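The protein record passed on for reference:
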Amino acid sequence: MRIYKNPAMKERAGELRGHMTPQETLLWNYCLKHLPVQIYRQYVIESYIVDFFCRKARLVIEVDGAQHRSLEGMKYDEKRSSRIEKYDILVIRFSNFDIEHNLKNVGQYIENIIRERLRLLETNPS
């Protein structure tokens, strides 16, 4: 299934790539940029900009700050994830705290999810 990308969001995504949060930068430098699959930073899906996207594994990785713990933030994230998942994309989320205090395990978890997703997609292509 082809992913729709709102072209009006391209410039904003570029701005965000240049100004990642400290936790996004930490995750990117520690883990994501070293994986054997390509990971995109600040990738546009519909009119949403996701923190990280692995097209091959159909995986979105989000790093959530405090605003995501509010009721309004959780409702927005739920709606957003629901739209993204319609493309057969798995959305996983980590808090800033997870990144800051448990980075090694977060990295291992992401690697395991990617490996499993690639195995499943290889045996059951859409």
